[in-house]
TrEMBL record:
<feature type="domain" description="RNA ligase">
    <location>
        <begin position="202"/>
        <end position="318"/>
    </location>
</feature>
<keyword id="KW-0436">Ligase</keyword>
<protein>
    <submittedName>
        <fullName>RNA ligase domain-containing protein</fullName>
    </submittedName>
</protein>
<dbReference type="InterPro" id="IPR021122">
    <property type="entry name" value="RNA_ligase_dom_REL/Rnl2"/>
</dbReference>
<dbReference type="Pfam" id="PF09414">
    <property type="entry name" value="RNA_ligase"/>
</dbReference>
<dbReference type="GO" id="GO:0016874">
    <property type="term" value="F:ligase activity"/>
</dbReference>
<dbReference type="Pfam" id="PF21189">
    <property type="entry name" value="PHA02142"/>
</dbReference>
Length: 322
């Protein structure tokens, strides 16, 4: 039986702001120690970066530095000429360096750091803000910024799909929240260093190496919501709208992180959703409008790092709780 609660009014609809990872930012050095092999580990916030001691001697506890997280892709441009000899990665046809996790003398290194002085435009901005709002507030502001775009840094990703994705009909609706979680290194101080944290039980879960999938239904009784979704129309020819997408009760959609798709019989997202049984189950959920989020994993996704048999794909639903 469908939920008979009133549909959300048009005035109450609020598009959701997507989470954005701070891939590159200014951080403060909080610890430093020598380890084996003529190396030194420098800690910025809760991230540890290991390098040769001769290089790490440039940094002192309390210094502000530019920190690039793992999976930052540093392009082969003049600013980063000292790294050119290490730039053997290719991303979207561009040569550069992918920042990776690595183990050095028993210590994990995650990221790269650079002296703030190597980026005079950031230093100048900070100095100007100090004059206007004071040093403490200007520094807090600087530490909150994401500066990847301004420095030409992109997030490195595997080619998402081996087989082409078909049937794109529009952008992901702003009413559907894009999943995203902070890395524990960035929030560990607020999660674990509290009195309440001592009485919590924590569960370790596996991070699947896949791509985001959203499956939603919107009732015909909520026409105001339907205006936030792309029009139902095939991308080629005059294929009729299939019953998987339009039911007597409303509309059903399948999307990834950026786009919504037409069920053309070839789209990998739709085909996996069908095999999972989620399209039948979503109609049994007693809510008029709902979106279910999960991860598409399988042999044609993210370079098959999870080693699925050829042709096998799964839709794994995100589950959260206490």
């Amino acid at each position: 039986m469908e939920n008979t609660t009133p549909a959300i009014s048009f005035n109450a609809v609020q598009p959701i702001q997507p989470y954005k990872r701070k891939l590159v930012g200014v951080r403060r050095v909080v610890a430093k120690k020598k380890i084996e092999g003529h190396c030194t580990a420098v800690t910025v916030d809760n991230w540890t970066v290991v390098g040769f001691t001769s290089q790490m001697n440039r940094f002192k506890i309390g210094d502000l530095v530019v920190f690039m997280e793992i999976d930052s892709f540093i392009p082969r441009i003049d600013r980063y000429w000292e790294l050119w000899s290490s730039m053997n990665d290719v991303f979207n046809g561009e040569i550069g360096l992918r920042v990776r996790s690595r183990e050095v003398s028993g210590t994990y290194s995650q990221g790269m750091i650079f002296p703030l002085a190597d980026f005079p435009e950031i230093v100048l901005h900070h100095q100007n803000r100090i004059q206007k709002i004071g040093k403490d507030e200007a520094t807090r502001e600087l530490l909150s910024f994401s500066i990847a775009d301004s420095l030409g840094i992109k997030k490195w990703e595997y080619p998402t799909h081996v087989r082409p994705v078909t049937g794109i009909i529009g952008e992901l609706s702003p009413l559907i929240q894009r999943p995203g979680n902070y890395r524990i290194q960035d929030i560990g101080h607020s999660v674990f260093n509290t009195q309440a944290a001592k009485n919590r039980i924590y569960q370790v879960t596996e991070k699947l190496d896949g791509v985001t999938v959203h499956v939603y239904k919107v009732s015909n009784q909520s026409p105001d919501l339907l205006t936030y979704f792309p029009a139902l129309k095939p991308t080629t020819g005059s294929i009729p709208i299939p019953p998987t997408m339009q039911t007597p009760r409303g509309r059903v959609g399948v999307c990834n992180r950026k786009h919504e798709f037409f069920d053309d019989g070839k789209n990998i997202y739709w085909e996996t959703a069908k095999m999972s049984g989620i399209l039948d189950k979503i109609h049994k959920i007693p809510y008029r409008n709902i979106a279910i989020q999960g991860e598409l994993v399988g042999s044609h996704i993210q370079g098959n790092t999870m080693q699925y048999p050829e042709g096998k794909h799964e839709f794994v639903v995100f589950v959260s709780g206490t």
